[in-house]
Each structure stands twice: as C-alpha cells, then as structure tokens.
Design goal:
By secondary structure, the chain is mainly α. It has helices at 4-24, 29-57, 62-83, 90-121, 124-143, 159-168, 179-191. It folds into 2 domains: 4-143, nmb1532 protein domain like (Four Helix Bundle (Hemerythrin (Met), subunit A), Up-down Bundle), CATH 1.20.120.520; 159-191. It is built from 7 helices and no strands. Helix 1 (4-24) runs antiparallel to helix 2 (29-57).
Length: 192
C-alpha cells in the first residue's frame, strides 16, 4: 500500500484532470460533475475521519486540520449549488470557476503545509498505516457501503438513485451523505 501522502496527492491530480474536462467539455458536464462529487466527497470523508486526526494529534497541526475540514465543507456547498444549476448558463461558469479555485487553493495549502508536517512527524510505517485507513474509508464512500452496517432498504437502490430521490425531496446535506445515510434520509422524508 502506498503511503497516505501519495494517495492524497493522486486524488488531487485526478481532481485537477476532472476540473480541466469540466471546463472544456460542456456537453459532459452533468456526468463529470457527478464524478467530481463522488471523488471529492469520498476523499474529504477519508481525510477528515482517518488522516486529519493524525495531523492534529501526531503532527501538532490541529488548526490546519480544522481549517482543512472547513474548506472541505465550503467546497461541498459550492458543488451542491453547481449540481442544482443549468450547466449551460453564465452563472454556472462563474460558480464553476469559484469552486475550482477554492479546491485548488485547498490542495495547495494541503500539499505545502499539512502533508509535509505529517510526513515529518510520523514514521514511514505510520504513513502506510494511514494510507490503508484512508484508502479503505475512501472505498467505502465510493461504493456506498459507508461502513456503518445500516441498510434501510438501500440494497435495492444505487447511491446515484438515492441521491436523485434526495434531490427531488430537497434533503439538505445530501452531497455529504453516504449511501446508507441517503437511504435513511429519503425514507424519513417520504414518511414525514
């Protein structure tokens, strides 16, 4: 398993490629936006739950970890706005630029401050352990398993189907939810 710094930076490069495609290929924007949303959400959850605690405790960068989490949430809010807009309008272009700039700023801060501090503070073995934990949590998020064992009837519906239902029902915070959370929120909204 690669170390956590390498894995995080791989995701950053993938996001940058997706951003380039999003800006250039207007016809594929809805599809590309969903890819960005899936990767960004999985990446953010994995960092916040598996990496940032080590950054705060072992690297002594509590403020940086907190700031990183705040930037994740801001990016997710912008992404949610983008998902609700027509990809052909001028407003979309402006919001897309704001979103891409915000994520690139976060990536730059993470790669110049947070990740070097973590690499300096822990052993190579610990970086690999964190890499394994990051990769497992990221995979849970991408596959919709979420790791909490709850099902709420989610086996029959894909995460994308649940997200569309949540969008139709105006479930708040849906972009940050895993498959099980989406299923629970959709079921709750339908029953109320």
């Amino acid at each position: 398993m690669a170390d956590v710094v390498e894995l995080i930076m791989q995701d950053h490069r993938t996001l940058e490629k997706l951003f380039d495609e999003l800006q250039q290929d207007t016809a594929r924007r809805p599809e590309l936006l969903e890819k960005v949303a899936a990767l960004l959400t999985a990446h953010s959850r994995a960092e916040e739950e598996r990496v940032y605690p080590a950054v705060a405790k072992e690297a002594g960068e509590r403020d940086e970890a907190h700031h990183g989490t705040e930037e994740h949430h801001e990016a997710e809010e912008m992404l949610e706005e983008l998902r609700g807009m027509s990809p052909k309008g001028k407003e979309f272009e402006a919001k897309l630029k704001e979103f891409v700039d915000a994520v690139k700023h976060h990536v730059e801060e993470e790669e110049s401050d947070i990740l070097p501090a973590l690499r300096d503070a822990v052993s190579a073995e610990r970086l690999k352990e964190l890499g394994t934990a990051f990769a497992e949590r990221r995979r849970e998020e991408l596959t919709g398993s979420g790791g909490n064992g709850s099902t709420s009837g989610s086996e029959e519906r894909t995460k994308d189907e649940l997200y569309e239902e949540a969008q139709e029902l105006d479930v708040h915070g849906r972009s940050t939810m895993n498959k099980d959370e989406l299923a629970e929120a959709v079921d709750h909204q339908r029953s109320s």
